[in-house]
Amino acid sequence: MHSSSKPKISYGPRNEGIHYESQGRTTEIDFTRLDGDRIYTESISKWDDGSPISDNEKRAILTDLLLFTKGWFRKSVVVINTDDPSKVLWEAVCKELFGKVKRIEYTSNEDNERTERQTYLAMLNTGAGLTINDVSIDSEEKLDEVLASMQNRTNG
Question: How far apart are CA 38 and CA 123, in angstroms?
Fold first, then answer.
C-alpha cells in the first residue's frame, strides 16, 4: 500500500495544483485555494505516462495530500465527483482521516460542464476574444457548439 520511500509533493504556480511524485511516477492533481484548500479527487486517476492509478495508490495519494495540505488551523475540503467510479473509495479515505478533512463537497459531470460554460461565457462577454482548441468563439451559440463537440469527444 504505502511505499517505504516518501513521495515528493509540491504546489504548482500560485499554489494552484499539486505535483505528486512517487517511485519514479508523477501526476498533477487539481487543487485550489479558492474558498479554502480544495483537493479534486477526480484528477487522481492517471499517472503522467497515461497508466491508471490503482485503488491502493489512490488511497495513498489522497492520504499524502491531506497530510501535505494540512496547516496548523487548516484542513482541506475534498471535492468528490458523484460520477467518479472511485467515489466510494474517496469517501472511505475521508471517513478514515476525518480529523484531517474539513468537509466533503460533491460535484458531478453536469455541474462541471455548467461551471465550465459559465466561465467561458463570462470571458466571451468581456469582448476580449475567446479561443478554445484553436477555434475562435464570437457568440454564445458558437461556444455551445464547441463545448458540445468537446463533450462528444470525451464521451466516445
Answer: 23
The residues, any chain, with a CB within 8 Å of residue 9's CB and separated by 6 or more, are 18, 19, 20, 21, 64, 65, 68
What is the Cα–Cα distance from 77 to 98, expressed in whole angstroms?
11
Which residues in 75-98 are b (16+ Cβ under 10 Å) and which e?
bbbbbbbeebebeebbeebbeebe
- Answer whether 0.90 is exceeded by the pTM: no
Question: For 52, which DSSP code?
Answer: B
Q: Which three cell numbers mark 155? A: 464521451
Q: Which three cell numbers stand for residue 82?
A: 458523484
How does pLDDT run across 122-140, given as a tens digit for each residue? 988 888 778 888 888 888 8
Q: What is the CA radius of gyration of the chain?
A: 18
Q: Cα(31)–Cα(20) distance, rounded to whole angstroms? A: 12
CB 48 within 8 A of CB 28: yes
CB 41 within 8 A of CB 86: yes
What is the mean pLDDT for each group of 10 consecutive residues in the chain (156 residues)? 74 90 95 90 96 97 93 87 96 94 94 88 85 88 87 65
The kind and range of the H/E element at 136 are: strand 135-137
